Q: What sequence folds into this?
């Protein structure tokens, strides 16, 4: 089945990824034919955002199986699984997708295995789109009428199968005429907020105001926002949430100003195997992402840099987690595990 979404186009025998490193200046699609190319695209941030990474890994593994044809087997796919799993460490959706495909292919060989992996990758892609629309409805209902919200990073159609998680809630609230506008933090160092979120929202005609990340406190002090809505890369059993670096700062600020802090993520982002956020592996990326902007130096070439891609927001700072199954208010271990048991 051919599936076209904002950043991922599935053509049945190959994948195309919208190169998010070039947006908004250029719209270039990159073809992917096997697991190595998929892993490279994830590592280099051609594709990014937890659900989109998981979808890409699933297609990458299925394409790799197809290169093996009649001799395809899960044991012959072990290296491909290891390569994909090593591409980025923090977003659990990557590991969730690979484990799901491994279960699907467990007893199969050859063409039957290839076909089953293709069908499962397509199902992961489509289920993610449906999950985002459900999240949009649940999340929009939490917002006061005529709200102005603040968001961080990019959690939209580009970061998912389509519609978005936090940005999906914003889209749904806008469709319901319950949203006044959005402040998007630019999200240094990779600028997902300015390059991707403000682009997506502008394209949809949703009023967006771009701000430097350091503006968030001033906006809250001026009562200009009624909620902060962000995504997540991994949510542990107790409700701690890893997300783009700077999310924790926003949660502390929101608590101080009495503003709801909402985390939106599909159930595939919940990781009940980890008891709390201290166990999450936080990816550290290259120093030049901080020393340069668009290839131009903005710091001394050898200055020491600390560049964690994510931080962890403790559950006690989170007002609600929204998934496709509903809302977890004031999350804790009992509530997260009960939510996972619900169907
Ligand atoms: O480094 P990125 O761009 O992959 O980080 C993305 C985020 O932190 C998103 O907020 C998260 O993956 C949720 S996307 C729906």
A:
């Amino acid at each position: 089945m051919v599936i076209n979404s904002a950043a991922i186009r599935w053509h049945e025998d190959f994948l195309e990824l919208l190169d998010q490193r070039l947006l908004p200046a250029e719209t270039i699609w990159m073809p992917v034919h096997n697991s190595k190319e998929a892993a490279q695209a994830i590592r280099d941030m051609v594709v990014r955002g937890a659900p989109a990474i998981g979808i890409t890994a699933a297609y990458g593994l299925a394409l790799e199986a197809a290169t093996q044809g009649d001799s395809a087997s899960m044991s012959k796919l072990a290296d491909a699984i290891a390569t994909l799993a090593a591409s980025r460490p923090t977003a659990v959706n990557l590991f969730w997708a690979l484990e799901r495909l491994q279960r699907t292919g467990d007893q199969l060989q050859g063409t039957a295995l290839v076909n089953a992996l293709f069908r499962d990758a397509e199902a992961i892609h489509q289920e993610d789109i449906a999950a985002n629309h459900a999240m949009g409805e649940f999340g929009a209902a939490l917002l006061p009428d005529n709200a102005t919200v603040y968001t961080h990073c990019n959690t939209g159609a580009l970061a998912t199968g389509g519609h978005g998680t936090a940005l999906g809630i914003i889209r749904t609230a806008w469709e319901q005429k319950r949203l006044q506008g959005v402040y998007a933090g630019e999200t240094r160092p990779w600028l997902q907020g300015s390059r991707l979120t403000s682009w997506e929202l502008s394209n949809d005609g949703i009023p967006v105001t771009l701000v430097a990340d350091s503006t968030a406190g001033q906006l809250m002090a001026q009562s200009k926002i009624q909620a902060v809505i962000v995504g997540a890369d991994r949510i542990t059993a107790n409700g701690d949430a890893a997300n783009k670096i700077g999310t924790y700062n926003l949660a502390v600020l929101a608590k101080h100003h009495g503003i709801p802090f909402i985390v939106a993520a599909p159930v595939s982002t919940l990781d009940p195997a980890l008891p709390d956020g201290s166990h999450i592996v936080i990816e550290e990326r290259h120093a030049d992402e901080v020393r340069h902007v668009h290839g131009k130096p903005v710091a001394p070439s050898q200055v020491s840099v600390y560049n964690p891609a994510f931080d962890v927001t403790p559950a006690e700072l989170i007002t609600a987690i929204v998934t496709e199954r509903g809302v977890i208010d004031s999350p804790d271990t009992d509530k997260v595990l009960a939510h996972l048991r619900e169907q």
Notes: Residues 136-341 form a domain with the Rossmann fold fold (CATH 3.40.50.10470). The longest strand covers residues 179-185. Residues 48-51, 91, 153, 155, 159-160, 165, 192, 231-233, 243-244, 309 surround MRU (CB under 6 Å). The radius of gyration is 19 Å.
